[in-house]
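User: I'm curious what two different proteins look like when written out as structure tokens. Can you demonstrate?

Assistant: Sure. I'll show them one after the other, since each token string lines up with its own sequence. Here's the first protein:
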Amino acid sequence: MLSKKEKELLAEIWGRLTPVAEDIGSEALLRMFISYPGTKTYFSHLDISPRSPHLLSHGKRIVLAIAEGAKDISQLTVTLAPLQTLHAYQLRIDPTNFKLFSHCMLVTLACYLGDDFTHVAHAAMDKYLSAFAAVLAEKYR
């Protein structure tokens, strides 16, 4: 699915983004909530206003999980196993939301990285985020 060069590029990008994980994650979440209002239902008990502590905290957790998965994509299923169980059995998140979030993350990355988000980086990131979403949804089958 991903070439060695693409995997290295992804690890480098996520390594750069880890220090600003809460900013990237909260912006992608907010973008999802605005673009797809139905996704807010899973967060009705939290303050999801821009820059709220809940949004920043959850956004950071998401980005750190994505970055961790990018370190060794061949082990993505193992890395995400706890999150698969959490989202499928405890939170019962509609797996379609993972794809919606992936698209919002791509837009956020394009805005944040600017010219560094080349067509090669975009394609690699799209493939990776699609795989990430698919792995999270595996427990639903």
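Here's a second, unrelated protein for contrast:
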Amino acid sequence: MVISLSTLLFPLFFVASFPLISSQKYESDSTIKTMEEFSGYPFHQEPGFKDSSSALSVDIESLQRQIDELASFSDTPAPSVTRVLYSNKDVLARRYIKNLMGIAGLSVKEDAVGNIFGRWEGSVPELAAISTGSHIDAIPYSGKYDGVVGVLGAIEAINVLKRSGFKPKRSLEVIMFTSEEPTRFGISCLGSRLLAGSEELAKHLETTVDNQNVSFSHASRFAGYAHEDISTVFLNKGHYHAFIELHIEQGPILEEEGTSIGVVTAIAAPASIKVDFEGNGGHAGAVLMPMRNDAGLAAAELSLAVEKHVLESGSVDTVGTVGILELHPGAINSIPSKSHIEIDTRDIDEKRRNKVIEKIHQSALTISRNRGVKLSEFKIINQDPPALSEDSIIKATETACKELNLSYKKMISRAYHDSLFMARISPMGMIFIPCYKGYSHKPEEFAAPVDIANGVRLLALTLAKLSLT
């Protein structure tokens, strides 16, 4: 077995204590100025503070510029970002990502739905690779960091390792996942679900249309994809040796506690439920209260029941949300004859979450009976299992945090991520970095360059450790 000198020397690079800031001055950066004015975020960079580590030097100025440039591919004006699957702006953004992968020396390929892969071949290419990445699609009027940090940051992590002289044993692969957001076709994590082998989804996409009645097939062909069977996207379990995703927290905990890194131990998966009630309706003044069969009140009562059952679970990790409540005919002087609600409930404990769903169902039946309305639909749209991070990836990330002198805490992710489905293919882990007030999915979304740099450095070191296993 031949071991390169750089491989032998590489671990020595990481025992030193690195400073937490790895960038040049930002006082004159127009993006920082814009975000300060728009969101009130006070960012102050110490003059002349530079990264002294030659081994893991993050070019944060270039990375921030890339984040800003990618944000310009948007259907709404700055500082908001709107980038919907297979739109013109999405196609341009994809070209931008492929170009950056090429500049980084990665071999680039795409699959039938547009998942993009950039590969750095390892010294033992027949071994299962280590993968990392995230998404770049953005819901309407959102921000420029969600997902993007995990894609552009992953490419920069590869650059960091190359600049350090590191030679991977296992290949390293950056993935840009297609459509993590459900904006266009109502399907979240579309690309990673398919990579995980969802035959049901592949079949469903044959007849799926968006709200403009454009089919998935037509839209994907417009973007240059779907020239082959979608099942060719599927990956076998064990295709990757490990997957790790860098992401903004999308919550306020790290910022509030002044902690640099969140090491994710589990991802809570949602179940989505649609419920429809039907009553008699009638004039708001003429129909007396004892004579009413009010579908609107049935929906309101079930909404409160969702809260009750979630709180009864006894765990802070159980959450439930009624995100949609629609009444028909929707007139102030008309008793609702129909109501429609959509419920999201999540937990890292699948059995506990499913027990809550069953209680919600029983409440819907009871409410229907007591109010004399018809429960015309109670449909579970999806009921994905939660995912646990792999212990070996958690330990590698924790070790890297200690070697880089980065404060960290273990935490769960209550938000959906592509990592949830990559866990079905390989061992999985996630790295969170702080974001301003936990804001996400809105223009005020912001991650400070120092936090992005810390996340990229940590990702690079963790990838290196995993590559050598």
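A detail about the second structure: Confidence is low (pLDDT under 50) at residues 1-54.
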